[in-house]
Structure formats: structure tokens, C-alpha cells
Design brief:
With 212 residues, the protein is of the alpha+beta class. The protein is 45% helix and 14% strand. It has helices spanning 2-22, 24-28, 32-50, 57-79, 81-88, 102-108, 112-120, 159-162, and strands spanning 92-96, 99-100, 130-135, 141-145, 173-177, 183-186, 202-204. It is elongated.
Length: 212
Amino acid sequence: MIEISIRTLVMYFIILFGLRLLGKRGVRQLSVFELVVIISLGSAAGDPMFYKEIGLLVPVIIFAVIVGAYRLTTYLMAKSKKLDDLIEGKCVHLIKNGEFSIEEFGKEGLAYDEFFSELRQQSISHLGQVETAILETSGNISIYYYPDEEVKYGLPILPVLFELSTVKIQKAGKYACSYCGNVEELPVTSTHKCKKCQRKQWVKAINSRRIK
């Protein structure tokens, strides 16, 4: 037990030193690339903590190779935009001008419920409050809002309102397509295709200001 405690303590400081060499960015936010590095470091550190047959020199060499490969890769990524895009990926515009960018949104395999939840946590009640939403390579979502005086009619994302989507328009007014967020002035009608995505499901649009 004493030996395991000592080996664990040694590996703890080796991991700490390794993460320090990765730099602040590698610890502060993890991309897919950085997550692979962290998992690799953890795998290299696990066995030496428990098995005395594995010397401490082996994980130190593995750590050196992993950290060296990381630093080399980040250096090459800084020099080559194509390599950076290949490894880190590109940021994706999910919302433009208060509507879904459906071509980009579909590429990410992001569920509407999941995305709506992210927006609601930022006190957003409908898409007309959002000028642009960008999915960053880190997985975080950056949101740029319309000023209060420029808020447009938009697709409601509150469950109690979104679930009232309908095909039949029983009262004339502004409606938002439940698929792409496109807003149109609709008359009373049994069915109407969205001009942007050709879908037929509509939700009564709202233009309330964001509660800050």
C-alpha cells in the first residue's frame, strides 16, 4: 500500500507537469484533439500506479512523446490553416438573422431540444432575439443578440409555445416555421408551405424582448 501510494504520488506530479507543458489552452477548454491528448496521458499514468512491474521511466517517456507530439501539432496548426481546420474543425453558424441556418445545423447532428435548452439558459425565448449563434470548435455556443429596439418576430423556443405548432392556420398573423424559423405573414388557411424549407408546420411567432 505504501508503494502504491508513493507511485501514485509520483505519477500525480508527472501528470501535473505534463498538463503544465500543454499550456493554459489545453487545460481551460478541450477540443476533440486535446481530449485525445488528455486521455492518452491518463492511460499512460494508470498502470504504473498499480503495477510495480512497470517502471516509472516508461510512462515518463510516453509523456514526453505525447507532449512533444502535442506541441509539434499545435505549432503546425498555427502555420497551416488547412491543418488547423482538419484537426480542430470549423466554427458553424447555427442561427443567422434570427433564423436557423439549416444547411449548417444539419451537419452537426445537434438535436433541436438540446439547442433550445442552451438558448433558454441564456434567457432567450425566441429566435427573433438572436442575430447570430455560432457553434465554436470547443463545443461552446457564442450568441450575439439584437438590441431591444431591433428584436424581430421569431420562432418561440419555450416548450409551452413551441408545442402548439400546427399545420392549419386558424387566425391570420405572423407565424414561424417550426423547422427553419422563417417568419411569414399568413392568412387563414388549411396548409401553407414555408418559402425557405417547404415544410408545413407553423408556430405563432412572438417578438418579446429578452429578459436580462
